Amino acid sequence: MSTVRLRRLHADHQKLVEFVMRHPRLRLIQAQGDPPELYQLEYCINSLRQTDEGLVPSKSHIAEIALPRDYPRTPPQCRMLTPIFHPNIAPHAICIGDHWAAGEPLWSMVARIGEMIAYQSYNTKSPLNGEAARWVEKNLERLPLDPVSMMIDEPATTAGATRPAAAPLPVVVPVAVPSAVAVAIPVAVPAAVSRTAAPAAPAPAAPSPAADSTATITVACPQCHTRYRVPAANAGKRACCKQCQTVFQISATK
Fold first, then answer.
1. What residues pair up with 239 in beta bridges, in sequence order?
2. How far apart are CA 34 and CA 26, in angstroms?
């Protein structure tokens, strides 16, 4: 084993362990090798699996990541050990995109898989599961299935890393990106009650609903057409596609 590969495997293992320890939805089941070249992780994320009776919710998922001999020049080999219903996940493989970069750390790949499980990231243009792709197109208003942020705690040893703001975009950005502007969430305030006695007033009109702070919009990368569900409050901000690394602006009309 070359010295360069050995150093990379050690660094990946150290940062991945730190990342998993900081994330409440992840658990490292096992790591084989010294340094490890095979990982199994559990994701506690809301998603779907298909049964004979149809689609049912699932909250626990186990993924396996194998690092081939030519890693990091070639991408990790990823697959699910538990069944899941997703356009870009087949029983034998997880499609991590055609634009693998050797500089992407392993913990970032783990985060990307989590975003796919949560239906924050999907590509219906070239799916591994056509039925799941059709389901996505018909149920966009239900997505994501889990709003969990996979980037809530980045490894402490990552140089120059910036903690994302609340409700971050489902992207892994290897370059510095301006911090998101805080968005004030309007809160419905009850109208003051009159202290002066008055005749019975007519039935009040139905109040306007408060702004939905959980509203999301669908955006697509203009380069590779990968689609994401992001908070509507992020409209107008910049995002970086996790598949092809294209930086684009989130449009409020999408």
1. 248
2. 22
Q: Are residues 17 and 135 in the same domain?
A: yes
| Amino acid symbol at 228 | Y
Beta bridge partners of 62: 42
Q: CA–CA distance from 10 to each of 5, 42, 104, 174 (Å)? A: 9, 21, 14, 20
Phi, psi of 140 (to 5 degrees): -60, -35
d(C-alpha 179, C-alpha 11), whole Å: 27
- pTM value is 0.63
Estimate to the nearest angstrom the gap between the alpha carbon of 161 and the chain centroid.
18
- The single-letter code of the amino acid at 111 is A
Give the rounded percent of residues in the chain with a pLDDT score beyond 90. Answer: 54
Query: Residue 161: which pLDDT band, with cuts at 50, 70 and 90?
Result: very low
In the beta sheet, which residues pair with residue 240?
247
| CATH number of the domain to which 114 belongs | 3.10.110.10
- Which two three-digit tokens encode residue 85? 């219903």
> What is the rounded CA–CA span in Å between residue 145 and residue 14?
30
